[in-house]
Automatic annotation (TrEMBL):
This is CoA transferase. It comes from the Bacteria. It comes from Parapusillimonas granuli. SUPFAM superfamilies: CoA-transferase family III (CaiB/BaiF). The keyword Transferase applies. Keywords: Transferase. Coiled coil: none annotated. InterPro entries: CoA-transferase_III_domain, CoA-Trfase_fam_III, CoA-Trfase_III_dom3_sf, CoA-Trfase_III_dom_1_sf. One of its GO terms (molecular function) is CoA-transferase activity. Pfam families: CoA_transf_3 (PF02515).
Length: 407
C-alpha cells in the first residue's frame, strides 16, 4: 500500500512531547523514523504516566505517555556525551532527510550536532529545532514546559470561570496543548521544507519552532479580537464573548453544550424550547445583539434546559440541525458511535504488553492512507538492526561499542 512519506528517513533526537509528537505524525505517514535515546533510561516519558499491564495483569516498563507519541518508530540508544556516540549520530544524519531535536538552544553545537555542522556533511538535511522560546531572543536560554506557555501567551487568562463566579480564576487547559500545537507546526514546517528541497532548491534548511510562538499563534481569533478592539478578553467559562448562546447548559441529568452559530439556528432553538417569541425579540434577533444581551437571554434559556434530560434536548436539537453535544468524560468518548465508526481507537500488538490501545491518526487519505506498521518501541529495540543496516557495523563492532557503553 502506498504511503506519502515512504521515501523519507527521519532521525528523531527529541524527547518528551512536542518533538516525538511531530515524529510520530511523520511515521504514520510512512517515514522511517529512528528514535535516538539515552542508554539505560531512554526518553524521559518512559518514566511518566501509567504503566501498561500485560495479559497477566502485571505492570510492564511501558508507560502511557511514551505509548501516546512514539508509534511507528525504531528505537536505538546512543551515548551522545561520548565522542564515538556523536560520530555515530553524524554518520546516521548523512543517510537521513530530516532531523528533529528539542535540546536547549545551542546545546547540540557542543557535540558538533547542530545544523551548521550537519549541513556540511548532508546539505539536503531538513533540520527542525523545537525549543521553549526559540533559537534567539532574551528568553532563548530558558527551559520551559507547557503550563509556562499557556500562562505567558494569555491562554490561561482566557480559560476558566469569571472572577465573580464560584471557582473563578485562570485555569490551565487540561492537556499539554502547547506541545501538541508546536509539534503540528513542526510537521507543517518539515513538509514545506522537504517540498522546497525536492521541487526547488535541492538543499535542506533549518526550522526554528518555539512553543511560545506556536501557542500564541494558536490563539488565532481570540488574539485578533483584542488587536482589533483593544479590549482585553475576559474569562467566560464555557461561554463566548462574541456568539450567543454558545455555552454549556445544565439539564436534569448533566450538561449539554450548545453552539448556535447563526440567527436561523437561534430561531430553531427557541422553537424547540417552546419560546418562539424570543426568536423575533429585537434584543436577540441578531447574533451581535444576543452577545451584547446574553446576561438577560442565558438565564431565560437555562431555566427551560433544567427541566429535561441531556438526551431529550440533544435528540430534538440534532433533528433541527442546532449544534449541540454532551460534555463527555473519556469513558464516554470511546463509546460514542461516531468515534467507533471513524475507527479512532485502534489496537496494536506489542512485544512487551501484548496488545495496546492507540488513538488513531485523524488523517483520512484516499490514495495513501495512514499506516500503523510498528507499535511504540521498547528501549533500544532496534539498535543493532539500524546500525548494521545503515552503517554496515558487524557483530564485533556492535559488541565493542556496547562494551565501551557507547550504545
Amino acid at each position: 500500500m502506498a504511503e506519502c512519506l515512504s521515501h523519507i528517513r527521519v532521525l528523531d533526537l527529541s524527547r518528551v512531547f512536542s518533538g516525538p509528537w511531530a515524529a510520530q505524525m511523520l511515521a504514520d505517514l510512512g517515514a522511517d523514523v529512528i528514535k535516538v535515546e539515552r542508554p539505560g533510561r531512554g526518553d524521559d516519558v518512559r518514566q511518566q504516566g501509567y504503566r501498561a499491564k500485560n495479559a497477566e495483569g502485571l505492570e510492564t516498563p511501558e508507560t502511557s505517555s511514551f505509548l501516546a507519541m512514539n508509534r511507528g518508530k525504531r528505537s536505538i540508544s546512543i551515548n551522545m556525551a561520548a565522542p564515538e556516540g556523536q560520530e555515530l549520530i553524524r554518520k546516521l544524519a548523512r543517510h537521513c532527510d530530516v532531523l528533529i531535536e528539542n535540546f536547549k538552544a545551542g546545546d547540540l553545537a557542543r557535540y558538533g550536532l547542530d545544523y551548521e555542522s550537519l549541513k556540511e556533511i548532508n546539505p539536503r538535511l531538513v533540520y527542525c529545532s523545537i525549543t521553549g522560546f526559540g533559537q534567539s531572543g532574551p528568553y532563548s536560554h530558558r527551559p520551559g514546559y507547557d503550563p509556562i506557555f499557556q500562562s505567558m501567551t494569555g491562554l490561561m487568562s482566557l480559560t476558566g470561570n469569571p472572577p465573580d463566579e464560584p471557582g473563578g480564576g485562570p485555569q490551565k487547559v487540561g492537556y499539554a496543548v502547547s506541545d501538541i500545537n508546536a509539534g503540528l507546526y513542526a510537521v507543517i514546517g518539515i513538509l514545506s521544507a522537504l517540498n522546497h528541497r525536492d521541487a526547488v532548491s535541492g538543499r535542506g534548511q533549518h526550522i526554528d519552532i518555539a512553543l511560545f510562538d506556536a501557542q500564541l499563534a494558536s490563539l488565532s481569533h481570540m488574539a485578533m479580537n483584542y488587536l482589533i478592539s483593544g479590549e482585553v478578553p475576559q474569562r467566560m467559562g464555557t461561554a463566548s464573548a462574541i456568539t450567543c448562546p454558545y455555552q454549556a447548559f445544565e439539564c436534569s441529568d448533566g450538561h449539554l453544550m450548545i453552539a448556535v452559530g447563526n440567527d436561523s439556528q437561534f430561531r430553531q432553538l427557541c422553537e424547540i424550547l417552546g419560546m418562539p417569541e424570543l426568536g423575533g425579540d429585537p434584543r436577540f434577533e441578531l447574533n451581535r445583539l444576543r452577545a451584547r444581551n446574553q446576561k438577560v437571554l442565558v438565564p431565560m434559556l437555562a431555566d427551560v434546559f433544567r427541566g429535561r434530560s441531556v438526551k431529550y434536548w440533544q435528540e430534538r436539537l440534532d433533528a433541527a440541525n442546532v449544534p449541540c453535544g454532551p460534555i463527555n468524560d473519556l469513558s464516554q468518548v470511546f463509546e460514542d458511535p461516531q468515534i467507533q465508526h471513524r475507527e479512532m481507537l485502534i489496537r496494536m500488538d506489542h512485544s512487551t504488553v501484548g496488545t495496546i490501545p492507540q488513538i488513531a491518526n485523524p488523517l483520512k487519505l484516499s490514495e495513501t492512507p495512514v499506516s500503523y506498521r510498528r507499535p511504540p518501541p521498547t528501549l533500544s529495540q532496534h539498535t543493532d538492526e539500524v546500525l548494521s543496516d545503515m552503517l554496515g557495523l558487524d557483530a564485533a563492532a556492535l559488541a565493542e561499542l556496547k562494551e565501551r557503553r557507547v550504545i
